[in-house]
Amino acid sequence: MTLSENIADLGALQTVTAVAEKQDEDLADVYRNWATIWAKLATPDLEKNYLLSDVYAPSPVRVNAVFSSIAAFYDSYGIKAGDPMYVAPDDRVAIWQPDTVQ
Hints:
By secondary structure, this protein is mostly helical. The chain is 57% helix and 0% strand. Helix 2 (27-38) packs antiparallel against helix 4. The termini are far apart.
């Protein structure tokens, strides 16, 4: 159920990253703001209901899975092999290439 929204989130963050890099924005701030947007509190029952009926992945997955596929995120936070959010480059999800943003 969440595939289309996961693809949209990844494409959006790749685009935001490319634009922020062109404007010399601090990517750590950009990523922190992105995560803040999706921060929420929910009871276990509400989360279970979301898992059964929502087209969006749970917020932690929605943020962390997307971040783990963005190369610039690794550079911004110094993430390396062995760190909890590290995903090997060959295993990262890539749909659109950010270097095509004009």
